[in-house]
């Protein structure tokens, strides 16, 4: 399987980036993981023609071609970063590649909670009508005390967390396999979802 892993911050010192690079190496025999940065992407500005910038289109194309997406989010003020929210807004407003795309959410934080509130918020965001991602349920990976979690080679040194991550990733592989097969069998029309608009929904509601 092939996954796109999004570093959910523009920080140069992010331990979420370290987590994704560890996953890429650690799970190399199970899946191909491409780590994608969002640091160079412009802030969302709601273009009238709904055409994304080239860098956003490139990320969107990678998401569309992948079997699933992994998002690593830190927690800023009980939520995700402004940079990650901006990227999600670009994708939801323009190409909508996350519709029916399987998503695994992970997160690292300097404190004990491991970005739990941000992960919960991200789940809510990804469930929006313009996104409709297939989020792996009942499973979350929270890495607390992340500043001390990696050695000089980028290895995750908490043995219990490595085991937990192994279990979560195996669950995600199964979730992706089953979900994508069901979507293929059911022939769900993602094109119709990508044309969703609140104006259209309001007009259809008014006609009932």
Outline:
Helix content is 43%, strand content 13%. It has helices at 15-26, 54-65, 82-93, 116-126, 159-186, 190-194, 198-206; strands at 2-7, 32-36, 68-72, 102-108, 134-135, 141-143.
Biggest sheet statistics:
6 strands, parallel
Tell me, briefly, the overall form.
globular
The helix/strand class is: alpha/beta
Number of E-type strands: 6
Rg, please? 17 Å
Helix content: 40-55%
Average pLDDT figure: 92
- Written as H for each helix and E for each strand, in order along the chain, the element string is EHEHEHEHEEHHH
Residue stretches low in confidence (pLDDT < 50, at least 5 long) are: none
For the termini, the CA-CA separation is: 44 Å
Explain this structure:
The longest helix has 28 residues, at 159-186. The chain is 43% helix and 13% strand. The protein is of the alpha/beta class and 208 residues long. The mean pLDDT is 92. It contains 7 helices and 6 strands; from the N terminus they run E-H-E-H-E-H-E-H-E-E-H-H-H.
């Amino acid at each position: 399987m092939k996954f796109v892993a999004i570093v959910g911050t523009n920080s140069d010192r992010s331990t979420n980036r370290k987590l994704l690079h560890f996953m890429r190496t650690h799970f190399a025999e199970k899946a191909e993981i491409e780590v994608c940065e969002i640091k160079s992407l412009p802030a969302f500005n709601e273009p009238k023609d709904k055409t994304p910038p080239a860098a956003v289109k490139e990320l969107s194309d990678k998401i569309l071609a992948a079997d699933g997406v992994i998002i690593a989010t830190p927690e800023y003020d009980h939520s995700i970063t402004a940079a990650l929210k901006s990227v999600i807004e670009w994708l939801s407003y323009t190409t909508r590649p996350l519709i029916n795309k399987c998503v695994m959410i992970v997160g690292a934080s300097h404190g004990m909670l491991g970005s739990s509130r941000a992960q919960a918020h991200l789940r809510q965001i990804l469930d929006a009508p313009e996104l409709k991602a297939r989020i792996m349920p009942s499973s979350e990976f929270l890495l607390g005390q992340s500043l001390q979690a990696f050695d000089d080679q980028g290895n995750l040194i908490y043995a219990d967390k490595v085991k937990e991550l192994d279990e979560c990733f195996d669950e995600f592989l199964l979730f992706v396999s089953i979900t994508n097969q069901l979507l293929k069998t059911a022939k769900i029309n993602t094109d119709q979802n990508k044309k969703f608009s609140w104006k259209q929904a309001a007009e259809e509601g008014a006609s009932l």
